[in-house]
Write a structure and sequence with these properties.
The complex is a heterodimer. Chain A is of the alpha/beta class. Chain A has eleven helices and twelve strands. In chain B, helix 4 runs antiparallel to helix 10 (202-228). Chain B starts with a helix and ends with a helix. The model of chain B has no long low-confidence stretch (mean pLDDT 91). The chains are: A alpha/beta, B mainly alpha.
Chain lengths: 316, 317
């Protein structure tokens, strides 16, 4: 009796275990890790959620970083311990996180998104071509200043890769014109300083013709400072990203235009491509191992449509 | 020689040099910009100075700016509260946070550093959670334009934050240098035990200092929120407490407590803002911003120390 019961128990355990094992092998665990917490990622999250809903045999976990490489390492370690199959991550400090990404790549399929780490063993990069985005901004500047003039750039940190690339794109676009880049001021993501930098630029160079904000909060900071100085319209503004105030500024005509990325696509494409690759289908990964999601230029005539879209995506 | 005088001297020398290199330093637009920032930073620095006089410290001010800013935006743009009510709520909440810090420090005997370090983490996290990690803005301030004008406008060409700072300074000067409470603050900071034995209600004095700081933090939070016109919960006000602490110490407050003056804190705040202003006006690369700040302050500290020693030696002879 007792041996029979033991046998039954053993059988039940085996059935259970095999069931678990089967479930494990059929459901792929995917994770999407951001570099920090920002509105941008709220939209990307919607993209990962759409992919999650479409993929019946995969689960998607969305994790927010806090802007440090340490936090990302902790998140990645956690996920690997839980047996994650695929990770899409926006590395905070790509150059120095290569080892961490390579370690992760031994246990899971690793994609980078938003910011690339080309030297690592990541399978693919999904994100913006920031040099191209910079060129688009450069075109906006050229349009706004047909006679040429002095321009100044504002950004949080200039050692960030996307800042460098956007700067490069702008320089390429204005090369050979009479537009002169006089300065790039940084604020270390302190928004009070960001606005003060602009106010002080307007004092130091009263003849500056256009101001460009490379990061999302720089647009509103420029707009507010220019407004305080009573120079709206007189000083042209070009921005990046889709901050509410930036869009309001474009709508009002105070900002010439803004170059926006498509974070929704970052989330959606990263997860669907990751899942496909895990299933052995690598057709979505090009030879260059880079999937560029194009940036768009939003101007006064297209801003309403874009605003509606963003509002829906943010779930407001 | 008083410490604040050395800082004042440094400030004057700096202003003369900057004006010589770029006369625009004294242009109306630049003076207004700088005065606005001095106002905003000065208001809470005075409160921090008061707490430092009692021998305490508050590291949570910057995070409190984020939390109060996020709440202000929600109250005005989502709940559509009447703006005087929202302002009162923010200042009252600031006072409550201050009282909480004060009570934890005095009743439970916790170290101010630990209590407020926890505040720094806690308020930042709460701000991010409440805002759902989204930037909270004020848009075109529909329904509360009066408040926006109050916080960002000018009175006879003087920026309102600076006017607020002048008024606050007058009140704080009386409180710190001309009132019994002020005497008690200094006594508590210099020697808490002695103060207690001489009949001063030490605990009440300390809690009051944190509450005053809380109220001033609330006022400054409103000014900062409208200065940027939006509050990004993860970075708004980050490390601003250090500007306050630095301003107080530059102005002659001792971190050991028992020393400090309102005039000194004002001079310290002004020096810090002028240092950042000159980096932009003289076209010094932004990357050198903190290096310039650190370098000039260090020169000031060394100069002060050398002069003090010489003065002691002369006195001894």
């Amino acid at each position: 009796m007792s041996s029979k019961r033991t046998a039954a128990l053993l059988c039940a355990t085996l059935v259970c275990l095999s069931g678990c094992a089967r479930e494990r092998s059929s459901t792929r665990r995917l994770a999407f890790i951001t570099n920090n917490a920002a509105d941008f990622w709220t939209i990307a999250r919607k993209g990962t959620e759409k992919a999650d809903a479409e993929l019946t045999d995969a689960t998607v976990e969305f994790r927010l970083g806090d802007g440090t490489a340490a936090a990302q390492k902790r998140i990645v370690d956690d996920l690997l311990a839980k047996g994650v199959d695929g990770i899409a991550i926006s590395p905070v400090d790509p150059a120095n996180q290569t080892a961490m990404l390579n370690d992760a790549a031994k246990q899971a399929l690793v994609f980078t998104h938003d910011s690339d780490a080309p030297d690592s063993r990541r399978e693919c990069y999904v994100g913006t071509d920031n040099v191209a985005a910079g060129r688009q901004a450069g075109e906006l500047i050229k349009e706004a200043l047909p006679q040429g003039g002095k321009i100044a750039l504002f950004v949080g940190k200039l050692d960030a890769r996307n800042a460098q690339e956007r700067l490069q794109g702008i320089k390429e676009a204005i090369a050979g014109t009479t537009i002169e880049l006089i300065d790039v001021r940084t604020d270390d993501t302190d928004q009070v300083r960001a606005k003060a930098n602009v106010s002080e630029m307007l004092v130091a160079h009263a003849d500056v013709a256009a101001l460009v904000g490379l990061w999302s909060y720089n647009g509103p900071a420029i707009l507010n400072a220019v407004r305080d100085a009573g120079k709206v319209g007189q000083v042209k503004i070009v921005a990046f990203d889709e901050d509410d105030e930036t869009l309001a500024g474009v709508k009002a005509g105070a900002i010439v235009g803004t170059v926006v990325q498509q974070p929704f696509e970052f989330g959606y494409q990263s997860i669907t491509l990751l899942d496909k690759a895990l299933k052995g289908d690598r057709s979505g990964v090009p030879a260059s191992k880079q999937v560029f999601i194009p940036t768009m230029v939003i101007r006064q005539n297209t801003v309403d449509e874009f605003r509606t879209k963003v509002t829906t995506l943010r779930g407001r | 020689m008083k410490k604040e005088f050395a800082t004042f001297l440094l400030l004057v020398i700096l202003c003369v040099i900057v004006t010589a290199l770029n006369p625009r330093f004294l242009s109306a637009a630049n003076l207004q910009n700088t005065a606005r920032l001095i106002g905003a930073f000065g208001i809470f620095s005075l409160g921090l100075g008061l707490v430092i006089v009692t021998g305490g410290i508050d590291l949570s001010v910057g995070s409190a700016f984020a939390l109060l800013g996020v709440l202000l935006s929600i109250m005005l743009t989502e709940w559509h509260l009447a703006w005087p009510l929202a302002v009162l709520a923010v200042i009252a909440l600031g006072a409550v946070l201050g009282a909480l810090n004060g009570l934890l420090i005095t009743r439970l005997g916790l170290q101010p550093f630990i209590v407020t370090l926890c505040g720094l983490l806690l308020y930042r996290g709460l701000a991010r959670f409440i805002a759902d990690d989204e930037t909270k803005g004020f848009g075109d301030a529909a329904g509360f334009q009066t408040l926006q004008r109050l916080a960002t406008g000018s009175l006879l060409h003087v920026p309102t934050p600076f006017v607020a700072l002048v008024l606050t300074s007058l009140v704080m000067w009386v409180v710190l240098h001309r009132s019994v409470f002020g005497r008690h603050l200094f006594a508590t900071g210099r020697n808490e035990t002695a103060a207690r034995y001489s009949g001063i209600k030490v605990q009440r004095v300390i809690v009051s200092a944190y509450v005053i700081l809380g109220i001033l933090t609330g006022i400054a939070a409103i000014v900062f929120a409208f200065y940027t016109n939006s509050v990004s919960p993860s970075s708004h006000g980050s490390f601003f407490e250090l500007y306050g602490i630095a301003a107080a110490v530059l102005g002659g407050c001792s971190l050991r407590g028992g020393e400090g003056s309102v005039v000194g804190i004002l001079v310290g705040t002004t020096l810090l803002q002028v240092l950042q202003n000159l980096v932009n006006l003289l076209g010094i690369p932004s990357s050198l911003n903190f290096a310039v700040m650190g370098g000039v302050i260090l020169i000031g500290a060394v100069g002060d120390q050398v002069l003090q020693r010489r003065a002691t030696r002369v006195a001894a002879v």
